[in-house]
Design brief:
alpha/beta; Arc Repressor Mutant, subunit A; Rossmann fold; 3 domains; two-stranded antiparallel sheet; globular
Length: 254
């Protein structure tokens, strides 16, 4: 995650921090996943750690460790009360509050984000859409009107926007971030393939689809290497690629 640097009068490239109450960022992300699972679980019942972990794609020990940050330990042989656990996670993640969001850049990605139905269900209200293209300004996406980016500061201040979403090309992202910060926005979700410099106290999350695909490609390549058996010679050794480098095994293989 990108965040603002220490207060030193200068803009800093972000550093990784822990979340609220000392929770690691990875734990915060998993809690959001657990909350999503609980939202689909029958209300008024209980859920055991094994079921919740399986549905969220983590192991039970990691789930129990994550929940310990909430002070939730469940009841042995019974599990967790769904309503209570949902409430604890909601409060820890700030999901009980409503946050106003401005989206800047209404191209293909921006339009898809503007249509996303998950904002309101998680406590986010899309309050403004901005673009610099005169052909787009004034058009509607659902009930929202695309407004000129030149009005961003005034509009965001008037509508009490606290979160900005950047869906512009790379070359425009830093300028947009500067304007959002000037408008009083304190959190930014950045879809542009660029690292942003922001003032201290401004949180930035970067979503780089190209980077995520590159990570998947890395795992695909290493998975393919694992499938290749390297023939050995009698009394010699076999080098087997484990994905973390080659290791030598005595003998002709086993």
């Amino acid at each position: 995650m990108q965040t603002g640097g220490e207060q030193d009068g200068q803009r800093r490239i972000a550093r990784v921090t822990t979340g609220a109450r000392g929770m690691p960022e990875a734990t915060v992300a998993r809690l959001a996943g657990y909350l999503q699972v609980l939202s689909t679980w029958p209300a008024g019942g209980t859920i055991c750690s094994e079921d919740l972990a399986r549905a969220a794609g983590v192991n039970p020990a990691k789930l129990r460790r994550d929940l310990s940050y909430l002070g939730s330990h469940g009841t042995r042989g019974v599990g967790y009360d769904v309503a209570t656990l949902t409430d604890e996670m909601t409060r820890a993640l700030g999901a009980q509050q409503s946050f106003r969001v401005a989206l800047v850049g209404v191209g293909n990605l921006g339009r898809a984000l503007a249509h996303y139905s998950g904002f309101r269900g998680r406590g986010f209200t899309l309050a403004a859409l901005f673009d610099v293209d005169p052909a787009k300004i004034g058009r509607r996406i659902d009930s929202m009107v695309i407004e000129p980016a030149a009005d961003l500061i005034a509009v965001c201040a008037a509508r009490r926007v606290s979160i900005g979403v950047i869906a512009t090309p790379r070359e425009a992202a830093q300028q947009v971030a500067d304007v959002l910060c000037a408008a009083g926005v304190t959190s930014i979700l950045n879809f542009a393939p660029a690292v942003l410099a922001v003032p201290a106290g401004v949180e930035v999350r970067r979503v780089d689809l190209g980077l995520e695909l590159q990570l998947l490609a890395f795992h695909e390549v290493n998975r393919e290497r694992d499938r290749i058996a390297v023939p050995g010679t009698a009394g010699g050794s076999i080098e087997r690629d484990t994905g973390g480098g080659f290791m030598s095994m005595a003998g002709s293989g086993s």
